[in-house]
TrEMBL record:
Pfam families, A to Z: JAB
Family recorded in the similarity comment: Belongs to the peptidase M67A family. BRCC36 subfamily.
Membrane spanning residue stretches: none
Species this chain originates from: Trypanosoma brucei gambiense (strain MHOM/CI/86/DAL972)
Protein name, per record: Mov34/MPN/PAD-1 metallopeptidase, putative
PANTHER family noted in UniProt: EUKARYOTIC TRANSLATION INITIATION FACTOR 3 -RELATED
Residues of the MPN domain: 11-172
Gene3D superfamilies in the record: Cytidine Deaminase, domain 2
An example Gene Ontology CC term for this record: BRISC complex
GO molecular function, one term: metallopeptidase activity
Length: 277
């Protein structure tokens, strides 16, 4: 088997990426969200103990497979926003590639776009037929393409809220194949420096762009009718208010508290340094 066709066998995801993806997934209960995964894909060799069994010159033959390390994510603008489906425009990949180049400079390790993630609000994390077809289209470009699904706002059989992550690939005949997933500390990734993950800024910027694009679409389809445009802008203001309450204000509160804690630690360290002298 050629390396370019080797299947994905295992994915290691940094804990910081999981936190960022969950923050994105929990930002809306009504629609699926989507983003891209950044990192590296490595080709490895395994041996097949059943190759040439029974022959005089029995020996194991190498089998190629791929493993992925994911250390960053990128929130993308959606072209389709529905509760059971999400899509993005092809040109979005170019923007993510630019982010991968910037990430390379920060972490000191070559970084590229290697996968995608999306949310399943109120349903299980298993991929739909649409998900499998989307995954297959990506795998035609990169056989080791990573697919992650984050299930949120879902109640299990015990009526308890449950969240889960599912890693998958599309097998022969558009079948669903699970891929081994391991969440590891960012410190265990092969990086010289950790990436800067500013999920709050990315979410606000992307959502604002999506809402403004939706208002512009209404204006174009209605021929600039005043009532339709006014209604769309009213909805825009309501969504901006929700984003502010749901994302911006909690982030600001967290930063203020974190700043107070850091200032306290700085004072304590300065006192210890003064005493040691």
């Amino acid at each position: 088997m050629e390396a370019k066709h080797a299947p994905l066998k295992k994915v290691r995801v940094a804990d910081t990426v999981v936190q960022a993806c969950y923050a994105h997934a929990f930002s809306t209960e009504q629609e699926e969200v989507m983003g891209l995964l950044l990192g590296e894909i490595c080709v490895a060799k395994d041996s097949d103990p059943y190759s040439d069994v029974g022959s005089d010159d029995f020996r194991s033959s190498p089998i190629l497979y791929k493993e992925a390390n994911v250390w960053d994510s990128w929130v993308v603008q959606r072209s389709v926003r529905r509760s059971d489906r999400v899509e993005t425009a092809p040109e979005v990949l170019s923007g993510a590639s630019e982010e991968a180049e910037r990430c390379t400079e920060v972490v000191g390790t070559h970084t590229r776009v290697i996968g995608w993630y999306h949310s399943h609000p109120r349903i299980t994390p298993y991929p739909s037929h649409v998900d499998l077809r989307s995954q297959l289209s990506y795998q035609m470009l990169e056989s080791g393409w990573v697919g992650l699904i984050f299930s949120v706002f879902y109640c299990d059989s015990t009526q308890r809220n449950a969240t889960s992550i599912h890693c998958f690939r599309t097998g022969p005949g558009e079948t669903h194949e699970m891929v081994e997933l391991e969440v590891v500390p960012i410190s265990q990734m092969p990086l010289k420096s950790p990436p800067v993950i500013d999920i709050t800024y990315r979410l606000l910027q992307t959502f604002r762009t999506e809402v403004e694009a939706a208002v512009e679409l209404v204006r174009q389809r209605c021929g600039g009718m005043a009532d339709a445009v006014e209604a769309a802008r009213g909805l825009q203001d309501a969504q901006f208010y929700t984003l502010n309450k749901l994302i911006a204000e909690p982030a600001l509160l967290y930063l203020l508290r974190a700043n107070d804690e850091l200032e306290t630690k700085v004072v304590a360290l300065e006192n210890r340094l003064r005493i040691s002298k």
